[in-house]
Acyl-coenzyme A diphosphatase SCS3 (Saccharomyces kudriavzevii), 379 residues
Amino acid sequence: MSSSKWFNAVHLLVCPVTVLLGYLINAYGYGTALQATLNKDGLVNAVFVKKGWFWTSLVGWWCIIRYRAVPGATGRGRRRIAQSLKRYTILTVWWYVFTQGIWFGVGPIMDLVFVYTGGHCHYDVFDNAGHVNQDFQGSVTRTQRALALIHNVLTLHGDDQDHHEKKLWSRSVGSIQDVLQTAESANVTASAAAGINSFIHDQMHRWQGPLTTSAQCRRFGGHWAGGHDPSGHVFLTTLMCMFLLGELRVFGRRALAHLYAQKWHLLGMVTRLFDTGPLWTWRRCGGARPMSCGARLWRALVEPPVACAAALLRLTRCIACDHPVVVLLALLVTWLWQLLLTAVASHFHTVREHISGLLAAYLVTGVVYARDAAALRLV
Ligand SMILES: CCCCCCCCCCCCCCCC(=O)SCCNC(=O)CCNC(=O)[C@H](O)C(C)(C)COP(=O)(O)OP(=O)(O)OC[C@H]1O[C@@H](n2cnc3c(N)ncnc32)[C@H](O)[C@@H]1OP(=O)(O)O
């Protein structure tokens, strides 16, 4: 099988296979350990994955521009960049429309699907036993944050309640205050829990509405549940992997050849990072003209970190400027790892919601790259 066909196969199969692998990991009981590493509010998820299209755009375009065709073939180089820009624009519009919003005041496709299949922004704060509902926000920190926000809104609109609501209002505010202060369960009876939940729901939808997108619901402390919610993470990681792999077809051969040609230079830069240990330096201080103790300590303890930082800076600059394909591959591995974690995290989404997120990205990127297949094959 030619390398082009191999690459095609990887491009087409890597995302579905990663999701399938996540299910197999779960099926064979290894998912619990992986799920323990998941953190919705962690740095990787909050700064990288959720803002992933930004990072993918930046690194992808830097590679496209850095590895554009050889200077002589300017016409062909310009055509390739124009083709990449066209593909990128289609995928960026699709990313925006599916996850951010269709138009001003109109939610994204993933949220419209959810709402039209019966989804809603819920405020089931207390369960039937009068305890704080574990499914309400999924973690203690998020629950506390949501309850504080609900408490602020209810307090702010305390005087807007009519006589009938006043009693319910004060019981709701009181119960939430109990939980916020003691972080334990409020003394809410089972019969009162439903009434308080419904009151909080009505108040939040009245004062903070409309809560018709997952972003609005999350921002105002609600729980987005009850409909078919295509997984935005599966959609986003699939879209990013398909884009990076698709564009790697344009410049991958040239980039990897350039990387291979400079392999010893890069290896030297990496080993120099470790060649600054205090023991190495202390031994080197011996030699014919032994140095004073102070001089040896300076050479052993101060110079190595400085030398290491300088070597790290040189290596970073070399990779960022001369071999950005290394950064692209690191990003690709990160997105695939996150895709695997999302597939393993069965409590976030059902399999059908994963599949709909996957297909939404996969079909559009598949069509975009299949249309340019002929042009890409000639690269
Ligand atoms: C020639 C010149 C060329 C041009 C040269 C251009 C240069 C370069 C210019 C850039 C131009 C581009 C422009 C981009 C600009 C932006 O990208 S800015 C970023 C804007 N977007 C945001 O801020 C993120 C907003 N959030 C989102 O869009 C959605 O959260 C996402 C990211 C699509 C995910 O959707 P979702 O439905 O929440 O995800 P879902 O799968 O349902 O997950 C359910 C829950 O499980 C959690 N979860 C799921 N999987 C995981 C996991 N693996 N780990 C942890 N938690 C997880 C989620 O965090 C989520 O919990 P919440 O945090 O939502 O409560």
The longest helix spans residues 232-261. Residues 38, 40, 45, 50-51, 53-54, 57-58, 61, 85, 92, 99-100, 110, 214, 218, 229, 231-233, 236, 338, 341-342, 345, 348-349 surround Palmitoyl-CoA (CB under 6 Å).
